[in-house]
Protein 1
Amino acid sequence: MLKAGLFGGLLNGCLIVIILGIALGLGLWLDAAAGGGKRVYTIVLVLASVPVTLAAVFFFSRWLSARTPPPMVETEPGREDFLEDSNSGNN
């Protein structure tokens, strides 16, 4: 479980860096194309990337946790069962 948590955190961190990098690069390119001395496009795109990043991390985390199997515990020697929650009805 520790490896899965670290792996998920690493992927979320990479996702954040990628989205912010795209926003920064696009903003700098638009500012250079516009020829203005102010970095208006860069600031607007970086600020606009914050809610996009939050939504992307939320949906990516949900997708990743849905694909992760529940942890297995050993109840009897040689027999492993999945942990069940209180809503499964199989307790």
Protein 2
Amino acid sequence: MPAVVQIDALHKIYASGEIPVHAVRDVTLTIEHGEFVAVMGASGSGKSTLMNLLGCLDRPTRGRYLLDGTDVSGLGRNQLADIRNRKLGFVFQGFNLLARTTALENVELPMLYGRRRFSTAEMHRRAKGCLDIVGLGNRADHFPSQLSGGQQQRVAIARALINDPQVVLADEPTGNLDSKTSVEIMGVFQKLNEQGITIIMVTHELDIARYCQRNLIMRDGCLVSDIAVPDRLTATAELQKLQAAESAAKLTD
């Protein structure tokens, strides 16, 4: 089985007046099926540009990108859109849910844009299954305004899973959440990863990156560090600590 992500000598250069901007410089990287990887770096480091390239939202200036064995480096706009729909799932910081659409209908949306056609009953069944995976099966008929921030992010994760992607790309998925909810969301990602789903996550939070297996550090467009995470956090254990602290605080009130 080929690596799910293989990029070789990847560059992305933007024209900005007379001075070109080298957003990504000569990055070579392999991510295997079933890995959970965090991409980190300061603002302007190139992490967001790299994520856009990995998500087929942009094309490299030069270099090669193989996604699940398919060279996507030179594909056209429509071909990239098809690859995104079939092989990638996206989770964003701002949830990006349609306000007047139920959780179930939000999850169904990616199925409307793919080549495969589903009956209404099949769409409902698949979407309900994905909501069950993230623990929101009983909120399928709720609108985003009726859900907490953490629940909205769970809907977004379910939507990312609906087309059985090879990779889930998460861009600052805990950025709009409080600490406890962030740990809960990382627990969802860890459970999905344990089921074999590859997850690549952009984050600037060091504690969030510790829930991943591997941390990639970007600086000035270059990949400067690629390390396994020592003393990796598990969401289950961290939630137990938070609950114990809350209980102790109530006893002292």
